[in-house]
């Protein structure tokens, strides 16, 4: 079944820390030896971290070895907020609050900050103002301050916020080496001299500016995406201030997100994975380092730059915790850096959670270092099928990754498990001092167990199931393909599922059932049966395309009125269990997706699932990462229910808590009917329909537990088989071929495909 295996894969910081033992370098495409010192030793970059704590940093600027930023804070006792500007000196560890915020006016916030070569500070302030009729508008001021924070000038910019009746947005501010100030809007650049006098405007036709910086030549550059046809792409463009126009344009890498001045005339460019040095004259880039190898989360990089002593630097901010760091990167001989054992994680694409987990592990672990191999690059011309092939070749070779990410819906986990690709994680759980099998929700482990081999333990999971009125389908979960067809026939004047076309209904009916018609072991299929004929006939009753009517009633109204019969519910947290019943406005049954045997078709979508490959040369190190990841704190990237029992039970308990609104004396506040007011619930909205959650009940949590218990990962479908079916079914839907003709063609084509790939 080697071909089958290949085909199914195609379907399926105030203290300076010690120097990390990890270091980072880059394959920059130079001839061998170009990135090596005398003696032939390669260079790497060694990181040092300065922890700035939780500072809610905005508008960061690194100039003259100091970090400038604004930081918003709110005093709950007084109800007052402030957003002053700070100057942080890494050498002293002192964050100095500069005085200009106090003079900027009530409700003033720095919209953009720039610093010139002499340390003068330029700020575009926005100020919220309410008139006597409680009407809101904004006022703007451009101000220049000397290095001590004393005002040099202030200029009212309020009139610039509106042009021809259209509100404008101040995106950035920059100052060149001559002291000329560029205030950048989406449609123009307003230029001022060092005294605040207007020097005219430069017209723009740009929706958004990515970066603004002063190059080492003293000129201002902006980067943005140019949508101009064949000449389009991401560009860095010189601002020609004397000529009042945009000057020379340079094509830069498509994924460059943060761009600033680099050594000499170069630009430094950061994306989520690497730091590049770009030569504007030749429009070529050189990879300096990989962020992950430097224990830096590329998603968190706010700015990059160079230090006077030759080091590189980056400022990072964790979006979830607001923890901010300055990272200094020193170019060092690789032979001078202690090396760790390498653990490689293979994934189609690296998501934000994996990147954050890898960085966290690498910072703490003294023995192992995790690197990530991405098989698919969205920024390249690579076909997805080629990436799958490359991954497959690695898995079956001796040089494959140690860990495989199993979150891609294109990966058929069952087929991989059948080939003995994965190590049994059950044996690691037995030896673990951190976890046991009983630490996790049993159905989650059961869903990822194949032939008694536990191939993964997802960190989180979500539930998807089809709901219907209990009065119409009864109170028992689960139904067959014939059941759903009969149900639709019993309600001929109602819509079965919202916005579902012929091809989409075919997909729904085969969600759990494609392999009911295929025996991959024997290399046979049976799409010429009466059951599959019924599926074709039923799918044909749906529209070829859906005509969306903006005037039609919203989904909850149609569900409650019986005009729409089924609702596919995605349950990501405990209170989501209330939504379906609220929409139908009566008790519901999670009947599920139809299955061939009538069992419950409830989908479990696992998140953060990683399997250890049996061919890994470092299984203990691989497990150490997985164990660390599962035991780590939940982040803003963790979505859904936790697979750990203790955390799930804590979530359920919290959802059932009743919190009452209290006054300043701690007394419970009651409504006009004398009932205590419950607070902290939140709600759910659908078009013009709104629902306010209530504390979850024991009955609701019993339903949730039942769904969790029966849920299972969705069986991966072979995309080629589904493609054949959809392609050959189209002429039948359009009345161009008979049912017999189409069934025979599907049977013939799929039989050939299955025979070749079994």
Summarize the structure.
The protein has 18 helices and 43 strands. The chain has 758 residues and is an alpha+beta fold. The longest helix has 19 residues, at 739-757.
Q: Estimate the global geometry from the Cα principal axes.
A: globular
Mean pLDDT: 88
- Helix content, binned percent: 10-25%
Query: Biggest sheet: strands, sense, closure?
Result: 5 strands, antiparallel
Rg of Cα set:
30 Å
- Beta-strand portion reads 25-35%
Number of beta strands: 43
Please report the distance between the alpha carbons of the first and last residues: 5 Å
Architecture overview:
The protein is α+β, with helices and mostly antiparallel strands. It contains 18 helices and 43 strands. Strands 34, 37, 38, 39 and 41 form a 5-stranded antiparallel sheet that branches. Strands 1-28-27-26 form a 4-stranded antiparallel sheet, with no helix packed on it. A hairpin with a 5-residue loop joins β26 and β27 (312-317). α1 crosses α4 (384-396), α10 packs antiparallel against α11 (530-540) and α10 (502-510) packs across α17 (719-733).
């Amino acid at each position: 079944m080697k071909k089958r295996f290949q085909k199914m894969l195609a379907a399926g910081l105030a203290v300076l820390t010690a120097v990390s033992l990890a270091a980072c370098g880059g394959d920059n495409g130079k001839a061998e030896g170009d990135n090596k010192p005398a003696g032939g030793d390669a260079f790497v970059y060694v990181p040092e971290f300065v922890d700035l704590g939780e500072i809610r940093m905005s508008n960061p600027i690194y100039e003259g070895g100091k970090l400038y930023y604004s930081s918003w804070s709110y005093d709950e006792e007084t109800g007052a907020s402030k957003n002053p500007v700070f100057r942080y000196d890494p050498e002293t560890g002192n964050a100095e609050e500069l005085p200009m915020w106090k003079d900027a006016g009530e409700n003033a916030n720095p919209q953009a900050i720039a610093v010139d070569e002499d340390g003068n500070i330029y700020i575009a302030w926005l100020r919220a103002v309410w008139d006597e009729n409680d009407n809101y508008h904004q006022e703007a001021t451009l101000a220049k301050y000397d290095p001590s924070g004393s005002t040099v000038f202030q200029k009212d910019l309020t009139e610039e916020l509106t042009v021809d009746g259209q509100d404008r947005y101040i995106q950035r501010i920059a100052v060149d080496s001559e002291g000329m100030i560029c205030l950048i809007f989406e449609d123009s650049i307003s230029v001022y001299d060092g005294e605040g006098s207007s020097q005219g405007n430069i017209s723009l036709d740009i929706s958004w500016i990515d970066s603004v910086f002063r190059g080492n030549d003293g000129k201002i550059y902006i980067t943005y995406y140019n949508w101009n046809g064949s000449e389009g792409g991401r560009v860095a463009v010189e601002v020609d201030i004397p000529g009042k126009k945009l000057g020379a344009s340079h094509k830069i890498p498509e994924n460059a997100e943060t761009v600033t001045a680099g050594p000499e005339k170069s630009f430094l460019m950061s994306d989520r994975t690497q730091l590049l040095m770009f030569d504007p004259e030749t429009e070529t880039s050189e990879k300096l380092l990989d962020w992950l190898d430097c224990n830096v989360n590329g998603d968190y990089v706010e700015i990059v730059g160079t230090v006077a002593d030759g080091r590189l630097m980056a400022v990072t901010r964790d979006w979830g915790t607001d923890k901010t760091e300055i990272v200094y990167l020193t170019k060092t001989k690789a032979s001078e850096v202690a090396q760790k054992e390498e653990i490689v994680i293979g994934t189609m694409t690296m998501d934000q959670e994996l990147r954050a987990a890898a960085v966290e592990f690498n910072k703490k672990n003294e023995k192992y270092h995790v690197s990530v191999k991405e098989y698919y690059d969205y920024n390249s011309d690579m076909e997805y099928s080629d990436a799958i092939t490359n991954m497959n070749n690695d898995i079956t070779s001796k040089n494959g990754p140690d860990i495989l990410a199993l979150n891609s819906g294109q990966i058929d986990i069952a087929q991989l498990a059948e080939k003995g690709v994965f190590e049994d994680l059950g044996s690691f759980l037995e030896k673990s001092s951190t976890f046991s099998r009983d630490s996790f929700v049993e159905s989650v482990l059961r869903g990822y167990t194949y032939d008694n081999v536990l191939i993964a333990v997802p960190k989180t999971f979500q539930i998807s199931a089809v709901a219907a009125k209990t009065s119409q389908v009864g109170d028992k979960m689960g139904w067959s393909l014939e059941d759903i067809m009969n149900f639709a026939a019993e309600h001929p004047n109602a819509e079965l599922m919202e916005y579902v076309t012929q091809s989409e209904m075919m997909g729904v009916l085969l969600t759990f059932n494609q392999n009911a018609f295929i025996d991959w072991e024997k290399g046979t299929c049976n799409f010429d049966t009466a059951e599959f004929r019924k599926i074709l006939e039923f799918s044909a009753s749906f529209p070829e395309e859906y005509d969306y009517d903006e005037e039609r009633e919203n989904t909850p109204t149609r569900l409650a009125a019986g005009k729409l019969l089924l609702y596919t519910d995605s349950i990501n947290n405990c209170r989501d269990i209330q939504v379906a019943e609220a929409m139908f406005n009566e008790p519901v049954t999670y009947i599920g997706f139809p299955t061939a045997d009538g069992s419950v078709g409830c989908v479990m979508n696992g998140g953060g699932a990683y399997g250890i490959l049996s061919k890994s040369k470092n299984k203990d190190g691989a497990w150490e990462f997985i164990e660390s990841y599962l035991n780590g704190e939940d982040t803003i990237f963790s979505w859904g229910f936790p697979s750990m029992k203790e955390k799930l039970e804590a979530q359920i308990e919290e959802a059932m808590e009743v919190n009452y609104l209290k006054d300043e004396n701690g007394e419970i506040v009651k409504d006009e009917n004398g009932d205590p007011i419950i607070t902290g619930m939140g709600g759910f909205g659908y078009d013009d329909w709104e629902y306010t959650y209530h504390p979850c009940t024991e009955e609701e949590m019993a339903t949730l537990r039942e769904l969790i218990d029966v849920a299972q990962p969705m069986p991966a479908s072979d995309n080629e088989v589904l493609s054949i079916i959809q392609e050959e079914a189209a002429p039948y839907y359009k009345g161009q071929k008979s049912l017999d003709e189409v069934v025979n063609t599907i049977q013939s084509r799929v039989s050939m495909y299955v025979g070749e790939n079994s």
